[in-house]
Amino acid sequence: QVQLVESGGGLVQAGGSLRLSCAASGRTFSSYAVGWFRQTPGKEREFVARISASGGVTNYADPVKGRFAISRDNAKSTVYLQMNSLKPGDTAVYYCAAGNRVGGWSMPITYDYWGQGAQVTVSS
Hints:
By secondary structure, this protein is mainly beta. The protein has no helices and eleven strands. It has strands spanning 3-7, 10-13, 18-25, 33-39, 46-51, 58-60, 68-73, 78-83, 92-99, 113-114, 118-123. Strands 2, 4, 5, 6, 9, 10 and 11 form a seven-stranded mixed beta sheet that branches. The protein has a four-stranded antiparallel beta sheet with strand order 1-3-8-7, with no helix packed on it.
């Protein structure tokens, strides 16, 4: 079992930055890939970024490439999402998720464990 807790959300002006953290419990966290997703009311959960279990491979959705950076510290069982040059369109609830299935890393169904979400609001 892995439990995930997001933190670091909040209100920021357009062009600003935030860093989300995803803290995990469970001794096997380092064996899981971790993804960040976001969701707005009435829309499906959208893939944002993903990092492999070792941290050696990262993937990003096109809308956030060059602005967001995902990283992890397995010694601290924590994954980070650094968000720069934020836009109002980035406003959403952000979720981290962990899973170790092969393939489909941009799809929510691939992940077995989810955090409760963190609200990010970007004002214009």
